Amino acid sequence: MLPVTASVPDPEEVRDGFRFRGGHAALDLTATLTGRLKETQRDLLAQPEDVLRWLRAAGFDCAATAPDDRLLAAARQLREAVYTLAMRRLAEQTLPASARTILNNTAGLPAAAPEIAADGRMRLRGDAASLLTLVAREAVSLLGGEMADRIRQCEGDGCAILFLDTSRSGDRRWCSMTACGNRHKVAAFRQRREKP
């Protein structure tokens, strides 16, 4: 299976208003619902056009399509199925049939095909639905493969971002050292300074 994203997180973590800290497209898709651990959430996939924006920001060559409410619903369903399954894997709990069915059905649809671009690099090109199918297939490979044990949830206060821990030691705690990791270090430093 072709990897959808590189295993090393992109240094440009925020693109077109979306966070890309997961190190994997399927985990990055789950970050399109922000504030999961807070009283109020914000859905960054608010309109069908947002699905196209996310795909393009994720680095996919998304063919011009007229997005509709079905595409939006499919993207949201896929996002929540991946999130549910990842969280259940983290908790070592049984994977719910409903989330597995959504993921498997999406992964079974026609997917975007890889092609060689003029610059000699591989790219994935297709319409939005076929690119979401590719994300679903990669989610199946991740959640059902040996890297599933490397999925983590950020330990930052109030952060629910999922990420793939590719560190050598396997003990990464933050979705981003420049965001949550830095906030934790600053808070710990202040706390140490305040002690008599």
Automatic annotation (TrEMBL):
Database matches in InterPro entries: ABATE, ABATE_dom_sf, Znf_CGNR
Ranges where the Zinc finger CGNR domain occurs: 150-193
Pfam families assigned: ABATE, zf-CGNR
Protein name, UniProt field: Zinc finger CGNR domain-containing protein
Organism, scientific name: Marinicauda algicola
